[in-house]
Amino acid sequence: MSQLTISLPPELQGWVDARLAKGGYTDAESYVRQLIQHDRYAYEAEVQRVRKLIDEGLASGVLDAEPEDVLDEVIAGIYDSND
């Protein structure tokens, strides 16, 4: 396992100390590891979400209409549905 040494300003060190005092973490290392792992999972989930949106967009096909015309239709549909 590699080692990482970081310096924290006093307010962040105070936050870490408070989190450790509340329990749930054996030490600052376990707290930081969990934060990094959470960030990794959140990043991977966001990448998957964007990839899914891209795939949906590609699968939806290409419109022949101009973007302004499509926007006008969307806006008209919004106002029509509110009546």
Outline of the structure:
This protein is mainly alpha-helical and 83 residues long. The chain contains three helices and no strands. The termini are far apart.
Please give the structural blueprint.
Layout: H1 10-21, H2 28-59, H3 67-81
Task: List key phrases describing it.
71% helix; 3 helices; mainly alpha; 83 residues
Structure in words:
This protein is mainly alpha-helical and 83 residues long. Helix content is 71%, strand content 0%. The chain has three helices and no strands.
Q: How many whole angstroms does the radius of gyration measure?
A: 24 Å
Strand and helix order? HHH
Mind summarizing the main beta sheet? none
Average pLDDT value? Answer: 92
Kindly, what is the distance between the CA atoms of the first and last residues, rounded to a whole number of angstroms? 64 Å
Uncertain stretches of 5 or more adjacent residues: none
